[in-house]
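Complex record, two chains
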Amino acid sequence: MNFTEYVRQLPQGSMDRRQSIWTRLHLDPYLFAALLAVSLGGMVVLYSATSGDMGAVYRQAIRFGIGFMAMIIVAQFDPRWFQQWGGTVYLIGVLLLVAVIVSGAQAMGAQRWLQIPGLFRFQPSELMKLAVPVMLSWYISRYGLPPRYRDLLVSAVLLFVPVALIIQQPDLGTSLLIASSGIFVIFLAGLSWKLIVSFGTIAIAMIPVLWIWVMRDYQRQRVLTLFDPNVDPLGAGWNIIQSMTAIGSGGLSGKGYMLGTQSQLDFLPESHTDFIIAVLGEEFGFAGAVILIALYAVIILRGMLIAIRGRDNFCRLLAGSLTLTFFIYVFVNVGMVSGILPVVGVPLPLVSYGGTSIVTLLTGFGMLMSISTHQRN
Amino acid sequence: MLNSSLDNREKERRLFLSRMTASFIFIAILMLALVGRLFYLQVVQNEHHEARSQTNRLEVLPIPPIRGLIYDRYGELLARNEPSHTLSVVVERSGDLDALVQELGALVDLSEDQVSRFFDRVRGYRRPFEPIPLKVRLTEEEVARVSANRIFLEGVQVDAELIRQYPYGEEFAHALGFVGRINQEELRDLDVGAYAGTRFIGKEGVERQYEDALLGEPGFQRVETNARGRIIRVIEKQAPKPGSNLHLYLDQELQKMAYDLLGDQRGSIVAIEPETGGILAMVSNPGFDPNLYVSGFPTEIYNALRDSPDNPFLNRAIRGQYPAASTIKPFLGLAGVDQGFVTWDYTINDRGYYQLPTDDRIYNDWKRGGHGRVNLRKAVAESCDTYFYELAYDMKLEAIHDIYDQFGFGKNTTADIYNPFTGINPSREWKQNRHGFSWYAGDTINLSIGQGYMLATPMQLAIATSVLANRGRWVTPRLLMHSNDESLLDNIPEPPPDVHLNNDANWDRMHAAMQDVVQGARGTARASGLGATYEYAGKSGTAQVIRIERDENGDPIGDVPEQFRDHAWFMGFAPLENPQIAVAVLVENGGSGSGVAGPMMRSLFDFYLTRELEQ
């Protein structure tokens, strides 16, 4: 039997296992292409949002470089590695969060960074964005699905500790994203609908408690401003009014690149960070915004597909959680800039100017690619 | 075991798939909601937001007009505009105000007064985003220091603007008036469009009277601004129309002379050109520096001026009302002789007092023992009271009131003097209304020597003197000579009807009697007339403030406290033929009119006439 015949006699599907170049590189081509498209497009918008500051675009490009490198490197590891190291990283992360609070007590006010003397500033909460879903996916998948009540309780504690520490900083946006990533793991693991409904009811009942005891003044103000930005048009409502005006005045096809009066004339605050989609909406119109959202949809759908095809519970839960959390990023940011959600500090993923979140996000996509390209041991 | 494990895996896979399906539906709905929201904003509400973004960036900014200049009759600049840099803060754009003011204090010299007034204005009513001035008139150096640090000073701006400057300061304070910051009361009434970009408004005097003409019309520029209000681009510009320049009859040198003559005495001097009615000089002393009104009075200076017993804010020329005293006699005498109550040859024997036929009351002459035989000419020259008591008794109130009225007493006859008092030319109805009593014969007697109820301002006496010099011809008294806005002259009102005499020769004879006052052998003010190279006429007046002990020459006995001393008057015109200038001088509590006020008038005449001859 010559080689060709041998191949013919192999069961159908074995041909699929002949690894494509992408699989050998442990990269997912669809995800990679969509991520690259969003990143490049984002830098084009950033150039306009900074009124032509090429320096900012270079710095952003370097971050993307680091991010894509991290993604490619992480993708080379078998998901087993994440499983093994997840617990350790999680523990270190929690310790660092405590360290931030201790050092922050000395430097008054908001403290999110840990200064490593002579090296760099490090934001432990970014680390937790990945450590929490890995930790929970690993913990829950150990005992099979759906999780038992005891596992749920432990998971809740594992989730609550870092979230509570980050709320203290205070960083509402990040704690929201980390809480979502954990809740998604538990939800995807098969938390019974009965419990989901009861938790939902309790959560709604907790709102007044949060309002009175937990939320800070500026956070309350943001919520109030959402309901009526005109209450304080020159103060807290200014951002919302200006961003809605920017987006709305873009129309179907936009005012043209670098021609957005709202963003170019400084009416739009934080136009290159959290509010950057208003620049896109103003200069490229509804068409531009929809194209961006479509690209995000491609990333999310691809991520969901990878999750469904995951080789085991851990991979499925992790991939699912990372993908859904990415969606939350998009939804919360676009929702707040377009005035349907309160303003919480969530950047537009892969587009907003800013270092750590880009690297963290792309590292997460590296994990997704690892899951999609390491199908068996 | 293997089967059940496989079963379990299949179950887990299916459970996960169902959860992913649920998530997919959840995500799909929310994604559609986002797209729907964007559609709503960008397509449905596009027009609304488009309009909003337009008004956001396009702003119409006023360009204030340049205020009209004020010149004297020879083209000397009396009120000009000079560039000034104002440091102000937009509170809405600045952070911690206290810290900011402290920082600014390191760059520019700030007084406590300036800082406290700034905070008063911050706390008081103001429009949002309105710059609140902290300091005006920065020095070049201060402007440079603030500009260099501007990037660190959020909400701070330095604006260059033209502000009013009065080079002659106090000399012209009352004549020109001044501009000051628009206050809230004025803000309510004025046309906001016309004052767009203008922060000053005429408050008093010429500045107030001719406010509309001096103001001009604002221009506009349509500009594109950023959120911080900084102008990025000017799209359209319409230049402002500068205010009209005014050329006044005022004579800067004469005004200065009059101001210097009064020195530190309270009083007023008004000079009029009889030919034109033009007001040559209008001084009220003491004055104040009108430039302080523009820059903002330091509180202690303002309080000192306000509380000063000398009342420097009172414009005595037009709002100081005094008994006209003996300066009224020429007018009364002219009417009496022209209407046949007396003749030039008629004499009385003055024994120093007068008694009404109807009661016992004695009316004393100022000179104890009297003037002896007195005709009208001598009565004017020596200022014999008794002669006029008798004349007044014969003429009765109505005829006296009428002649005073014809010469402009008790009313405003000026064209463009802001807010003058009218004095009082009393009548029966006036007394009934004012005091609730009927008119007594004794009131008429008092009226004959300009005492009693009669009050006149220095301006009124100068005008009456001018009409007398003009032989009864009225020309509307005015400040404005000409302007590039010719319509202003059209607004000059008609003067009162001329004073007609039955016999025009009476003018010359009265002028001659008045010449005797200053240049006659027995004139009351002959001392002040000595050595004059021209002929002129005058009349003294000494207005009683309070009844005081006097010697036989009418001079007070002993030391009289200043505020009880008589007011000194002098009026007159020169030269006798073709008079060029008519003057009224008042010195409050100055004592004797002929002794104090007469020499001042003589000095003015000397200056004015000799200088005129040189030209």
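Note: DSSP finds 23 helices and 20 strands in chain B.
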